Amino acid sequence: MVEEVAYWWRGRLYSGGEAPPLAVPLKLVEVESVEWLCPKCGERAEWGPEPRCPLCGARCEPRTLVVEVPELVDAVEALERAFNRVCRARFRGAVALEPFGLFLPLFTWRPLDLELPDGSHLVGVYAGKPRFLKRGFRNGPTFELPGNLAAIVWSGLLECLAFEVEEPERLAELLSS
Ligand SMILES: [Zn+2]
What pTM, to 2 d.p., does this model score? Predict the structure, then answer.
């Protein structure tokens, strides 16, 4: 296992120097992987019950190799790491949102479509005051948010992830750019 750090942003990996400001720091971990190679022409076969060379049809042979893959982090951890690159951020809690709930139109957030490393999507960001959550969720689970940013994440269900950050407006701008 190596402790090398890579940065992930919008489906791409970057090195430290070239990473965009909100890129998520990820560890690269070494895993063993098997590829099937043709003994005659060296072509790689698609894996199958009996992998064959796509060029000459010969039976391919397995070769074990070590590949570096980015660790998988969940949405909350990814966002916290990303936000911590530009401002101090603390995850404060999550509540489920009803997509067509009574209070939803009251909220003004910036719509986004950002893929996160775990495959979920950040669909919008709200940079504002804590009353956002208190007003919106008085009929459901509520929590008092001491900070002033809420990030909305789609991950199977519409979930509001709340982060306490120092400069919410700047963060919302970086996310939208
Ligand atoms: Zn071949």
Answer: 0.70
